[in-house]
Hints:
The protein is mainly α and 500 residues long. The chain contains 17 helices and 11 strands. It has a 3-stranded antiparallel sheet, with no helix packed on it. Strands 1-2 form a two-stranded antiparallel ribbon. 49% of the residues are buried.
Amino acid sequence: xxxxxxxxxxxxxxxxxxxxxxxxCTDLVNDEQDSVVRPPVEGSSFAPGNPTEMLxxxxxxxxxxxxxxxxxxxxxxxxxxxxPPTRSVDWGDNGVWRAYDTHNWTFTHPQxxxxxxxxxxxxxxxxxxxxxxxxxxQAAQAKFLRAxxxxxxxxxxxxxxxxxxxxxxxxxxxxxxxxxAFDFIVKDLEEAIPDLVSLPPAPQNGEASKEAAYFLLARLxxxxxxxxxxxxxxxxxxxxxxxxxxxxxxxxxxxxxYGLDPNYYNAFSANPGPEVIWAxxxxxxxxxxxxTLHYNMNPSGWNGFxxxxxxxxxxxxSDIRKGIAPKKDGSTFSGVGYGFLIGQQYTEKGEPITDTxxxxxxxxxxxxxxxxxxxxxxxxxxxxxxxxxxxxVFMRYGQAAVMKAEALLRSGNAxxxxxxxxxxxAIRKASPLASLTNDIMFDETSRESYWEGIARTxxxxxxxxxxxxxxxxxxxxxxxxxxxxxxxxxxxxxxxNDGY
Length: 500
């Protein structure tokens, strides 16, 4: 059974000191066995380092997004796109997955704590890079990465702690409100853009670029009403000026040569195409197929996550996003299809697979309970295919296209929004829509970006997060997660979010 993954812990002295300060301890012994010890800046724990090495480490940290837990689980397991059923004792894990599905998490949830620590460590690493005499291009990349990590903290938790490198270990990090963090992140991106490179479409755009900054700014302004709201659960006031910025930034991506790929799954492979704006170069996201494929398939998976039939039924049969049947031509992994896997499953030679636990033919069912699920229950999802997957995609033009359409709709231009959506649907081989409402726009956004690690953000913006299938705790204040208990104890500048 796959349990929560434990990541490699960097032992740079600065990080050890930072985490010591965050924990509020008073004694510290440095482990220098595999660290480079640098003379600290007077009055603080920080010592400037090699910005090239530090920046490489910051990019390497992005590999954490390849996991099916932590950030990805907080975005997907909590929504109507994904269900993490317990199958006998498999995927029990002390209820961590079920808590996400039912919205019954607490501030002691281990993955929630891990996500808080990961993201805040990564943001602080970027502060160190910026203070280590980087080149203009390196500083711009560090600002982008800091903005990206702080954006995640702001989106998940609302409040964002921030430690200056000049602060001593006993000084508490200041805490930005969600509104303050939004402004800080936007400023970082705007300052970074002039010194970032401009990158055209490529199978693996791993470096922070002008286009990646444009995309993140578009996402920020699309969600600005959420982040600036006095209550995380809304109501939200989407202003036309903000929607115009979304449209402008997406148009800039098109000017740079980005567009929609007729082969929807190209963006998640090593194949060339016009969609990939920014991706992690750190490893292959194998956990995202392992977590859903059955034990007896090739590759052998962990037989976990599935989607719900209600979500599956939102797709027309002709829609390429619904999936591509497996080739079953004898080549490696050709028994696995793309998109949604339902019904009888086959080997690479086209022979029906038998579930060795039940001795029955393996046919994935539409129905799937959260607990007590049999090994065949639930429609499985393959966005990254084991035969072609190459990187984890953070940003692609398909996501940008639906952001632009939504911005047009929210700014009162439903006609143009409908044209944008139908242009996308034509490329995806789906029939045109006759009209466009907020609900229809939400469905189209979900169809385009399912299982890409942004579902919760989309549901919150459309005021659907507290009402999805499987939600037991319907408190709308759960639009943000709680601040972990250890963080509250270590930093008295933090206060718990409402509802926890």
